[in-house]
Specification:
single chain, 124 residues, alpha+beta, Adenoviral Proteinase, Chain, 21% strand
């Protein structure tokens, strides 16, 4: 078994919708960043959506994530049916670089992400 990283940033897609999870070992918190702000606080959501993650970390790292607290952190909200993936990537980048997470021009941000993916250049 390998040791679990201190922080895991995990983009996930379910039913064609992207969200971002962060798992912080030191605090025992799983944070959900969702551009549609679904209600994730109930046991039903936790049991159904996170079971695979729980099993993976138990098997690979011996870490019982079911003991972690699940919270929802405010996320940039999408105003369309297709920006969830872009917002998830922007949230992940902001967490890594400690930047703000409010974006106004999603088309411009899409071009920045495309540029970074094609040429390996990071904006920060």
């Amino acid at each position: 078994m390998t040791s679990m990283p201190a922080v895991v940033i995990l983009p996930l897609c379910k039913n064609h919708h992207w969200i971002l999870l962060t798992i912080t070992k030191a605090t025992g918190i799983i944070t959900i960043h969702d551009s549609l702000n679904h209600n994730h606080s109930g046991k039903h959501y936790t049991d159904n959506y996170l079971q695979g993650i729980y099993r993976y970390y138990a098997k690979k790292h011996g870490e019982d994530l079911t003991l972690y607290k699940v919270i929802v952190e405010e996320s940039q909200q999408q105003n369309d049916h297709y920006s969830c993936g872009v917002i998830t990537m922007l949230n992940a980048r902001a967490l890594v670089y400690g930047k703000q997470r409010r974006y106004k021009a999603f088309d411009a941000e899409r071009m920045v992400i495309l540029w970074e993916l094609l040429f390996g250049l990071m904006r920060y």
